[in-house]
Amino acid sequence: MIGSTRQDARLAEVRFLTVAEVATLMRVSKMTVYRLVHSGELSAVRVGRSFRVPEQAVQEYLRGAFSEQ
């Protein structure tokens, strides 16, 4: 039970972004974000008919993009 409490606390700290917010942050189109999500390059959670992207996933993706150059 204690392990789930820690996990719940960590989950409560996660900040989710909409596809539009990710697109603005990355300065790309929403379609580009959808392509990244569908290809698995950017992790996301489906909520109903829309996606929410953990802010940390965006930061990790951008870090990876910078290190590839």
Characterize the overall form: globular
* Distance, first to last CA: 44 Å
Radius of gyration: 14 Å
Number of helices: 4
Give the strand tally. 3
Order of helices and strands: HEHHEEH
Low-confidence stretches: none
- Largest sheet: number of strands, sense, barrel closure: 3 strands, antiparallel
User: Approximately what portion of the residues adopt beta-strand conformation?
Assistant: 15-25%
- Quote the CATH topology: Arc Repressor Mutant, subunit A
CATH top level assignment: Mainly Alpha
Pfam families: HTH_17
Protein name: Excisionase
GO molecular function: DNA binding
Domain Helix-turn-helix: 16-64
Task: Tell me about this structure.
InterPro entries: HTH_17 (IPR041657), SinI_DNA-bd (IPR010093). It comes from Catellatospora citrea. The protein has 69 residues and is an alpha+beta fold. The chain has one domain (15-68): Arc Repressor Mutant, subunit A (Orthogonal Bundle), CATH 1.10.10. The protein contains four helices and three strands. The chain has helices at 2-13, 19-26, 30-39, 55-68; strands at residues 16-18, 45-47, 50-54. A hairpin with a 2-residue loop joins strand 2 (45-47) and strand 3.
